[in-house]
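Request: Not sure, any thoughts?
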Amino acid sequence: MRRRKGGTLASGIFLILFLLVFFTVLEHISGPFNTGSASSTGVTSPRGSCTAEHVIGGAAPIYPDMSWATGSLASSSYTVSLPLSTPSSADSELLNDSWWREVFASSGQSFAGMPAGLYWGFLNTSQSMQDWVNQNMPDRPSWAAFGVMTGVQEQLAAVNSNATASRNATLARNSVRDFVVSLSGKGLAGVDFLTAGSLSALKTYDETHDPYLALCQTFPGQLAQLYANSFDPGVPIDQRAQYFGELLAVGSLTAVLAGHDNFDGKFKAALKNVNLLDAWPEVKAILADVTTKVSSNAAGLTLQAISKVGAAFPNVPWAASYTGFRIESMVDVLHDAGQPKELVEGKLSGLVQAAEGAGDPAAVGDAADGISYDDGHAIKLYITTDGRGYLYSDVSTMRSLKASFLEGRVPGFQVGKPAFLKVTYQEAKAKVYHYYSGGDSWNPIVPDGIAKKGDVVTISVQILTRDDFVNSLPQMDFVNDKGVPYIGTITRMTDHSLVGNQFTLRFTEDPPLEMNLHFAVTGELAESMDWNSKTGPYLDMYLTPDVFNDGVMIRIYYDGYHPLSLGINHGGEITSVYDISSDGVRLRMVYSSDLHTTTLYPVYAPSVIYILKDMTPFELPYDVIGYSKSYIIDDVHPTRILEHDMAYNGGTDDVARIGAEVAYTVATNKLGLKDVIMQDPAAGGADLCTPGYKVVIESRMLQRTIGESGKTLASDIARQLNQMVGRLNSDFYYYEGQGFKPTAGYAIFTYVADQNTIKVIVLQVLPQ
């Protein structure tokens, strides 16, 4: 399993990167290089520096011979052949006891500064790690029971003894040279195998694409330069002591781990015995993480638990890796929760005991998850290709989070009972609403903005209630970027409140229409949420019926992470709300890609915004048939600038809306009809009616008539009136077929006569 966390390199990637570095470096170092010594330039390299010239021993007086040994990864290394020693005044320091004290001090500093991720670091300080070695490596080196530094000190003492025993500076120099040369072939395969993180050279190459820097990152890659600087009289004596101390530290550690007593081979054999050799690249990264987060002793306990599971289930390829990943996840959660290391080590000891008699290869990992949630209140999931979170995922197994794990840990959660879940993603500092459908397991689909494939996320889970959903709704902006006329540029949902099931959304509109800056939408909230696989949870709100008893259902979409959005139920289909606006009389909701509009009148009927002159009988001068009475209203006066502008300058829908509102005003104020209903134009049938369709009304308004006169105007009006009479006859037929009995119909035709006059013609039509 690949994970971004921890820097683990899977075996295939490990081999590819290794060979990439291997052949790139081989190509570069096979050619000639023009190098010079530090003494000839008078420039000394800073402590621990490494350049291309350093790698091939460029600071040495003559060319050292460095070449790569061929073979498999298990034996790959490079050979360093240092030049023949040229007598130097610096050689005499090897016989100076005070010099050696400085060297040993530098060596100690070098060990302290070496990467903490090396296996030797926690082997040296962890009793639990030493116990593991003692249990699993029968033919172990004598120093293994006491820590790596015991073996290193033996190497340092041997180098010191061999150098000083001769009492000859040249022989002392040669003994040091022999020690360094003896390390040939013991670098990459041994030391880096025991690196608890990813191979440092490969990591460096991946980051810099510089093969020389990659080579320098391996300990033996520094030997030639350190050797040259240690015996360069042009380097100050105290700095030479530092270089020589580093040389001995690097060399001694390399000798112990990669050569002395064949420790690296024995270590591999021990891993193989407990079925961990193939999983070691992943396991050693886990151990490094545990060491960093808790302690080296915790890493040793982790290795013990993983080893016991691996040995107990040799035919389950994922057992060790799964156990290690879940234990590491537990450690990370407890560390991030601020739990003391003593508690973490105690939990790890319990897992080691649980591994003794585990009857299930997943049992120890599952137990670690229980500790993670019980003591750290969170659990980690691995994100797969489709964005789903799993406990573990590789070619051999997919481990889901069991619903039974959440029951008892998440208040209100029950196995088999569908539930909405509020999940906190700690790394992203975000909450996302998910749904549990009632199965045996639950694998959340994580939004792209939270995590991607290969990420590991830390989550905690709560039940999401309806009130939680409502209280978490954020502000929402509707931006009129498509230029819909007669609504504001920006409408913002600023606030909301819930009393029982009565829910109110509050808005501001900029610029305000008719100074109506603030408005609200109120309705009845559904008792429970529902779920859409594409948009997440939603909650329906049934708006309070307006003066025409029209009710609209608004759907509130919010998944806790993405922006809030609204939908509207129109004709049984839910479409997205593009904008919402109020001018104090009309509440308009613009929806769908075609920008259709639903208009409600929450408080006031439209008759409050028009003043009509008297309606008088009118002998129709147009060729119209099928009506019984005709009337005219010589002027309609809008009380607000908004309606005046809509009538004279608005688009087709705006003019039709004014015509319907004028028709309503005529029907109630002039015809004396009661309980007139103005229907949604998109609903079909009559534009207006009385209850039971006793009276049906067709409305129409023309704006173009302001430019017409004479026969053109008369022809246009006659055509409109005839069409409206025909529509009324169709309405009579339709409603009678539905069981209703219309008694009368009216065609109310409004038109713009000139720049200051709006007229209305009213025709009464009776059923035949």
